[in-house]
Design brief:
By secondary structure, this protein is α+β, with helices and mostly antiparallel strands. It folds into 2 domains: 222 residues, Rossmann fold (3-Layer(aba) Sandwich), CATH 3.40.50; 124 residues, Beta Barrel (OB fold (Dihydrolipoamide Acetyltransferase, E2P)), CATH 2.40.50. Strands 6-7-8-3-9-10 form a 6-stranded mixed sheet, with helices on both faces. The chain has a 5-stranded antiparallel sheet with strand order 13-12-11-14-20. The chain has a 5-stranded antiparallel sheet with strand order 15-19-16-17-18, with no helix packed on it. Helix 2 crosses helix 3, helix 2 runs parallel beside helix 4 and helix 3 packs across helix 4. The protein is globular and about 75 Å long. The mean pLDDT is 93. The structure holds adenosine-5'-triphosphate (ATP). The site of adenosine-5'-triphosphate has 12 residues, from strand 2 and helix 1. InterPro entries: AAA+_ATPase, ABC_SmlMolc_Importer, ABC_transporter-like_ATP-bd, ABC_transporter-like_CS, Mo/tungstate-bd_C_term_dom, P-loop_NTPase, PotA_ATP-bd, Transp-assoc_OB_typ2. One of its GO terms (cellular component) is ATP-binding cassette (ABC) transporter complex.
């Protein structure tokens, strides 16, 4: 990869018999916004702690710009962390909080002043230098924590659920601000969250994790459109996932019906899971739908209705529609072949990529 700044090679973390990270491999490029996304306890913070130098890897290599840094002390890494609870000093004002690291490094007063005002400008807190920490809102405290982390000019910034203490509206505003800040600074951000909406909104690349493993890596759109397995499809966005059978290339069967699809390269009649996103399902009349369902409940969500329904085989279907329906009514749902996403049981990301490559290679030969 061009411009690789961080590389994890077979990195493992064990606490006694507990394996917190299982042979993790990934690379981060300079200047991109990455997110580690996964449920509580999947190992996100452990990756940050290893990268920051707060804990050792039990096995594997961590490199920074090609050099092994496993044994490099935390304060010698050009990597800084913004913690979930901000970890600000309540007895120091904004200026002194931001200046703290520079004072420890015995930087001259003039340089400190210059760097602190630049960091405060970047987080839009110029004019707040003399404020006490307890005189700031949650969002402003959050920005002080970021200013303190960027004042040392790190090349990589690690952010451990930094928005989790904020209310929903401020959180959305801070997502945009953080993304803009990363673009202004041009450094690599590695952001940790268990909020899929946040990950989709902010990242260049997402790593979806579960049980100490990275299950899938890709752009938000790629992960949303092509989830590798049930866990990812369920965790990212809302999904309808039903069991089916891959009859042949571009032909999948579910709910006892055969549908044209864009997936291929599987064994004939292989059991599969089929994903259809609620926003890809159009509500229509019974005779115009590809499937017939009965409406169970509907909830108004502001811009759309979330309509819950079931088919005759007992599968549940969530439909997002700008039109409301009627509970108890039979309706049709319509979707296009490209709205159907077929997943193989137990397929890893590497196997998925290899299958796609092989299939596309064979398709090219036929042309
Ligand atoms: N010091 C420790 N001793 C023993 N087990 C630990 C220790 N630190 C973390 N773990 C375990 O390692 C696993 C991964 O923890 P980690 O904090 O990385 O998860 P996480 O994905 O960041 O979770 P959360 O979103 O809740 O912060 C968990 O099962 C946790 O219990």
């Amino acid at each position: 990869m061009a411009n690789t700044i961080i590389k994890f090679n077979g990195v493992e973390k064990r606490y006694g018999d507990t394996v917190s990270l299982k042979k993790i491999d990934f690379e981060l490029e300079q200047g991109k916004f990455y997110t580690l996304l996964g449920p509580s306890g999947c190992g996100k913070t452990t990756i940050l702690r290893i990268l920051a130098g707060f804990t050792d890897a039990s096995a594997g290599t961590v490199t920074f710009k090609g050099k092994r840094i496993n044994d490099l002390p935390a304060n010698q890494r050009k990597i800084n962390t913004v913690f979930q609870d901000y970890a600000l000093f309540p007895h120091l004002n904004v200026y002194d909080n931001v200046a703290f690291g520079l004072v420890l490094k015995k930087t001259t007063k003039t340089v400190i002043k210059q760097k602190v005002s630049e960091a405060l400008r970047l987080v839009r807190l110029s004019g707040y230098a003399e404020r006490e920490i307890n005189e700031l809102s949650g969002g402003q405290q959050q920005r002080v924590a970021i200013a303190r982390a960027i004042v040392n000019e790190p090349e990589v910034l690690l952010l451990d659920e930094p928005l989790s203490a904020l209310d929903a509206k401020l959180r959305t505003a801070m997502q945009v601000e953080l993304r803009q800040l990363q673009q202004r600074l041009g450094i690599t951000f590695l952001f940790v969250t268990h909020d899929q909406g946040e990950a989709l909104a902010m990242s260049d690349e997402i790593f979806v994790m579960n049980n100490g493993e990275i299950l899938q890596q890709g752009s938000p759109v790629a992960i949303y459109d092509e989830p590798i397995n049930h866990f990812v499809a369920n965790f990212i966005g809302e999904s309808n996932i039903v069991k089916g059978k891959m009859v042949a290339d571009h032909q999948v069967e579910f709910v006892h019906q055969c549908f044209e699809c864009v997936d291929a390269g599987m064994r004939p009649n292989e059991p599969v899971e089929v994903v259809l996103r609620p926003e890809d399902l159009d509500l229509t009349s019974v005779d115009q739908g590809n499937l017939v369902v009965t409406v169970d409940t509907q909830v108004f969500r502001g811009s759309i209705y979330g309509i819950m329904s079931h088919d005759h085989a007992g599968n549940h279907w969530l439909i997002h529609s700008v039109h409301q329906s009627t509970v108890g009514r039979q309706v049709g749902i319509y979707f296009e072949p490209e709205d159907i996403h077929v997943m193989r049981y137990g397929e890893s990301e590497a196997e998925f990529d290899a299958r796609l490559e092989q299939y596309e290679g064979e398709a090219d030969e036929k042309i």
